[in-house]
Amino acid sequence: MIVTGSRLRHIGWAVVLTICFTAFTALTFRVNAVKSEVRLEERRIVALTRKKEMLETEFQTRASQIQLSEWNAVDFGYQAPRADQYLENERQLASLGTPRAPGAPTPIRVARAPREGEEGYPAMVSPLTGKPVHPGHSADAGANPLATLAGRIADEANIRSARAETIE
Question: What is the pTM assigned to this prediction?
Fold first, then answer.
């Protein structure tokens, strides 16, 4: 079979395009491989930079400790604490304190441990009535909650003042 020039030209272009496509694909893979290597090296550079900064900080800290110890010894006369300067317990610390001066305000107490016979938590008390509240129980179980609340607020117009209690 005789192949015409036009048909040969088409086959030639197909071969050239196939070679170009293969070269393009190989080049794309190579570029992506190089980009991946560059990213890995950039990450390594960042990690090494951070490590270098950490070591520089450590060096400066140790250098300043030497400078501080020289200042303590020469200029300020500071010394490391001796064993007899440490306290054994809270009583020794309290013995170093001074009693309160006359006319000094009493210390503010914000919490206390439960006394013998008491439970860990106090009973819930209504802020309006001051009476204990039992969760889940309501005097007017079937009443409208808003109407009940409005009635209670109207009944309890004078709210008791808070009582401060000193715990000793």
Answer: 0.34
